[in-house]
Amino acid sequence: MILINSSPKNALKIFQPFLPIYVPVGIGCLLAEAETKAIGVQVIDEQVENNILKLIGAYTKKMSRPYIFGFSVLTVALKNAIQLASALKSLYQDCLIIFGGIHPTAMPEETLSYGCVDIVLRGEGERILFQLYKCLKARQDFRHLDSISYRSNGDVKHNKISPVFIDLDSSRFPYHRFNSKQYDLGFILSSRGCPHECIFCSNRVTTGRRYRFKPAQAIIDELELLYEKYNRRHITFVDDNLLVDKERIYLIIDNIKKKGLDKKMSFNFQARADNVSRSLLNDLYSAGFRSIFFGIETSSDRIMKIIKKNETVGQCIQAVKLAKDAGFHVSATFIYGLPTETYADRMNCARLSKELNLDMVRFNNATPYPGTELYEIAKSKKLLNVRGLYENFVSVSTFIENPFKKVPFSYVSEGNTEDEIRRDILFSYFAFYLDFNKLKKIFTRPDEGVGWFNAGRKAIEFLRNIPAILFLGCMLLLKLCQFFYYMVLKKETAISFRKFLNIFEKLPK
After folding, report:
1. pLDDT band (50, 70, 90) for residue 400
2. pLDDT of 432-442, one tens digit each?
3. What is the structure's pLDDT at 173?
């Protein structure tokens, strides 16, 4: 079997040269399961590979028919996946193509409407994929399997999702299958799922709301492996929500200290504001945790209720202050264009990002990914804007796109326009980052950026990146001009420009 991680080339546009390439975690989890079952699996990752068809040709020479290709597909990568699957069907007419991951799980019927896709595997794939593989390889009937969708006599059939969740107790990530020169291996997936119900989050499509985690000792074993074998010193916990179970967290803290890893390594993680306390943050910091990321999303408690965050702006503010007091590097995101949001709400987000003295911040445009409640809201209000094969479902498009080739928004909430939201995103970025100390930290202390931006940890790396840095600088200057274009030409009079200047002056220095 060949597993393929679909990814658009240069997905992060002008920032691509400065960002690490992360291992496709979903594919990695499937590899781990394949190894326990002694099933031979090859992996192709479109993030790092060129000449994909040539590489597949080399692999298939050592495989028996029928060739089986399993695609892991996010919404933004659907176009690439369909194009490659179509090419494979032309080359190997008897091959079987399985699509899995978030987008096929959310949209199985639509996915099967493309003739190149034979089967959709919904939800978590480890348990079912290799049962399916054995059936297909032996040319046996597979239609009894849970969690699959398929065509039958012109109709699409959807079998029930498997009620059995993957047990993480014995799962160990196969870092050895990924080239450390191509990927940033400094990460751990220690849990799955999130018990909350934010309307914009698509992760629950595959994992559900049930929260599961690896035992503390298994996590320590992986940390030691990353330190000793792969020379990793900075580790990111890629869990959706690390701090759900406090008893587990304290077991991890205790074991990190017992092994002395708090003196050798540092750790980054994502958390909800309502999961932290002063004592917990202090204890985490004492164990080597140095960077924390919060999804604040909005400055409005009204919108917090609408997006079902189940926390308040006040809790977010308190969490950031506690984390800063404990010594953490604090990052956050805000989402612009959420339902009922106003210009004033967005400007309050910009003010809040300054007042909280955040170290890093992203301002995203609301994106209604399939499988989310926001998608259903956008669809019901006829505000869903799908271009091609979801190529415009990019939450960071305003800042990463080429100024001369805008990516149309997939959703614009009522009472707003796309130009207004773009303008306010650009304003918020420039208001936050036009600060010498912040820019200096980004370029001189890349490890604190938690993978957000790295111009080079060594002088030679920085020198190699100078052409890309100059290009990036030109693009950002053009974006600044684009911002002023929105301010002056897209508003009624120069009064609006003076209004902007007043807002900028009122933002905390």
Report:
1. confident
2. 888 777 766 66
3. 92
* Span 50-67, pLDDT tens digits: 899 999 999 999 999 999
Q: How far apart are CA 391 and CA 412, in angstroms?
A: 16
Q: Are 70 and 100 in contact (CB under 8 A)?
A: yes
Half-sphere exposure (Cβ direction) of 193: Cα atoms closer than 13 Å:
17
**In the β-sheet with 2-5, what is the strand arrangement from edge to edge?**
42-45, 2-5, 68-72, 96-100, 119-121, 148-152, 155-158
pTM, full prediction: 0.89
Phi/psi of residue 159, nearest 5 degrees: -75, 155
Looking at the DSSP bridge assignments, the partners of residue 213 are 191
Integer CA distances (angstroms), 499 to 300, 487, 505, in order: 22, 10, 10
Whether residue 74 contacts residue 101, with contact meaning beta carbons closer than 8 Å, is answered with: yes
Angle at 35 between CA 34 and CA 40, to 5 degrees: 70
260 DSSP assignment: T
Residue 145 pLDDT class (50, 70, 90 cuts): very high
CB 252 within 8 A of CB 216: yes
Nearest to 95 by CA among 2, 187, 175: 2
Task: Find all residues with CB under 8 Å of 138, minimum gap 6, and list them.
Answer: none
Helix (H) or strand (E) holding 269: strand 266-271
Residue 105, SS3 per DSSP: helix
What residues form DSSP beta bridges with 184?
22
Peptide bond into 467 cis (omega under 30): no
Q: What is the DSSP letter of 455?
A: S
Q: Domains of the chain (ranges plus CATH)?
A: 2-158 (3.40.50.280), 186-506 (3.80.30.20)
Return all residues near 394 (Cβ < 8 A) that are at least 6 apart: 76, 367, 400, 401, 407, 410
Residues 71 and 30 sit within 8 Å (Cβ to Cβ): no
Q: How far apart are CA 258 and CA 309, in angstroms?
A: 36
User: What pLDDT, in 10s, does the model give residues 313-346?
Assistant: 999 999 999 999 999 999 999 999 999 999 999 9
What's the pLDDT at 371? 95
